[in-house]
């Protein structure tokens, strides 16, 4: 549980930055080199390559992307399976909330029946 | 776009902490007071109330929960609609990836046809 939680910490934190999300969106379309990603970055003029590579490193540490170097060129690709823990967590929240709404629905239905039968509180 | 991005930053960052996710999971079952949430917290002995309330504040700033004070008791409730931007973003990634797989599938199918017809490269 703790291990899984820690993975969610790393994933959500990695996703909490616009540059990193932009990189993921680009890589969802296909692999790209570090230079291509940096040049395509909206704020490439405002962000030096070392800072940009820091974002790539965080994505790689989170398991969201992988990279490999051939000669002097490093290429990156998306690891789409890495989103699964995030999606599972959101799905769990949705299920809990839905169960709660079902219970509330039952409660209101019973209240209406009681009122109709004159067993509940009057208006 | 920038506004939406900034909202995603705040949401993902708020979700990147196990205490905050634990609070959300508890609130998905129904509203609770700050004391109830703090007492139910796994590490309540290790986390003083002011630190715990700091987490509640971050969740409230992200729009994930709302709170109201009656007398000396503050109650919190989940705002499940606040997950929507996160879910939309993940869905966009899934769609982009799926489109890419479709293109790859077409590519492989064409390659196989070319080989079969003897128009492609030989083994």
TrEMBL record, chains A, B:
SMART domains, per the entry: HTH_ARSR (SM00418)
GO MF term list: DNA-binding transcription factor activity
Pfam families the record matches: HTH_20 (PF12840)
HTH arsR-type domain span: 10-95
Protein species of origin: Celeribacter neptunius
InterPro entries in UniProt: ArsR-like_HTH, HTH_ArsR_DNA-bd_dom, WH-like_DNA-bd_sf, WH_DNA-bd_sf
NCBIfam families reported in the protein's UniProt record: HTH_metalloreg
Stated name of the protein: Transcriptional regulator, ArsR family
Source organism superkingdom: Bacteria
């Amino acid at each position: 549980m703790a291990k899984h939680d820690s993975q969610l910490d790393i994933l959500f934190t990695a996703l909490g930055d616009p540059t990193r999300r932009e990189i993921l969106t680009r890589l969802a379309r296909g692999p790209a080199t570090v230079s291509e990603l940096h040049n395509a970055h909206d704020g490439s003029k405002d962000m030096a390559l070392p800072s940009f590579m820091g974002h790539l490193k965080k994505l790689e540490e989170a398991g969201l992307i992988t990279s490999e170097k051939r000669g002097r060129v490093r290429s990156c690709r998306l690891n789409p399976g890495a989103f699964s823990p995030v999606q599972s967590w959101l799905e769990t929240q949705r299920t809990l909330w839905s169960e709660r709404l079902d219970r509330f629905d039952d409660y209101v239905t019973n209240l209406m029946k009681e009122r109709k039968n004159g067993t509940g509180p009057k208006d």
